[in-house]
Task: structure prediction
Amino acid sequence: MTIGLTHYLVLATAVFLTGLSGVLVRRNSLIVLMSIELMLCAGNIVFAAFSRWLGDASGHVFVLMSFAVAAAEAAIGLAILVEIHRLRRSVNLDDLKTLTE
Amino acid sequence: MPAVADASLTAQFGALLPYLVVAGGGVLLLLADALSRASRRDHLYLLTVAVLLGALAAQLFGPAPERTALLRGMLGGEAYTQYFNLLFLGIALLTATFATSVFERAARYRTDFYPLLVFATLGMMILAAATDLLTLFLGLETMSLAVYVLVGGQRGSLRASEAGLKYLLLGAFASAFLLFGMGLVYGWAGGTGYADIADGLRGAGGNLLLLRAGLGLMLVAFAFKIAIVPFHMWTPDVYDGAASFVTGYMATGVKAAAFAALLRFCQLALPELGGFWWPLLAVLAVVTMIVANLVALAQDGIKRMLAWSSVAHAGYLMLGVLALLATGRQGLAATVGPASGGAVLFYLVAYSLMNLGAFGVITLLGPDRGEEADRISGYAGLARRQPLVAASLAVCLLSLAGIPPTAGFMAKFYVFGAVVKAGLVPLAIWGVVASLISVYYYLRVIVVMYMQPAGESIHDGRSWETAFATGLLALLILFLGVWPGGLQRLAEVTFRTLAG
Result:
């Protein structure tokens, strides 16, 4: 059996759904951030797979760009998390109720 | 392999200059911020104003906008781009002005505000001009990443950090949907350009499942950015927790940029196939208008109220987009299409003016009063203390409610008119009902300002720049309410340049 486009798409969907369930279920904001990175990663797999399948390089370029974006997003997320942890000693999403009170 | 020089790049320089000025200015501001002493940073404001004015001038006096693609089809250089670039630069100028009056009084806000503002504006300009999925993604992220920090970047404020984290998590969540959806669309179309998608649709019978799935996921991301129900949950908290001038910037700039990108995507990539999004969007738009207006009735805080109001306005704007999509389906595209697109463009300008004015006044009165500042009851007696500021706020709120003779009334008139012309009378009726509900909560603030005696919590924030700017915005709103024809024609002509 050769590994084809379908396998990559199934893998990407599985990774995306794993990340999605992580975002919806976990309450630790660090884990949520990691789950979002998984979802972004799934998008990259789709692009890379199609890029190879189509023989078109623009998908690979897209993946490189989205790496940079994901890294920047993680950096900003961690910076804000550090600030929140300093002020509240917790990164649990259920503790973040200052705005809704 | 030696790269072949793109001969047309020199010719594109003039059209790209506004982007280069803003990007270079942002880097310059970062450097200036790092090199200057913490105590003396007022010159950063002047530098920001210089950068933004320079970009405005480059956009206004640059080469006449043509329907040529820039950077090999990455950005569109037509009048549509120019229209939105001028809007974004104007919004950024006003936001910088509001912010500087706050910085004079409260130093905790001052964390790299100006460079981030400039980079966010660059992201908006790219987003509105994008004609390729890649530039759409990068523009959206450039804007969003900068705005996450603008929201969360008040040192020592738990409210702001919390708002920033919520916005970042949900925004990044939406970006992941966008990226995955784009991947599927790319695989279906075989290229990332909007033109590739349009070509694919023209040639295709075949299997549209991949495209449908991709477009559905992309729609989720768009819905998050423009905050329509059910993807609006972040809006009240984030608008409430961010500094008022940042909220004003988000409510106007971010929303206008997302709508500009959505309109362009619908027009260029999906000329005949609004049908994918149409039924879902129609339901979402109606639910958005009704729910947001009903929840806004119950708000005590003025920023939360305006947050819900901005969700409701996203619903009205969506009606305009729906009219555009519907005309594509019914073959009315040549006649009604530009009218509905133009109505959305007019609405975005009017909406930006009135929201900036309202948030300008909130900024002016806000920062010293702490968290209680946002209570609507805190505005009691404002009309006697500061009649001009109160009058400006009253004009902005009347305009948001859509009462003549204001820009907000004309904007709603054009959008609902386009919706009726497109044959969607029930949608227009829902829109009118929703805006009738909204009159109550806007008028409540005006009643409090004019009819109730001043309480103890009143604070007289004074800043001549902000007061002047909000007064000017109020005059502009009235001007557009009385003589809307000029801008309306401009908006329609501008939208025509987009029609593929």
Q: What stands out?
A: Chain A touches chain B through 43 residues (CB under 8 Å). The mean pLDDT of chain A is 91. The helical segments of chain A are 5-25, 29-54, 58-88. Chain A has one domain: 5-100.
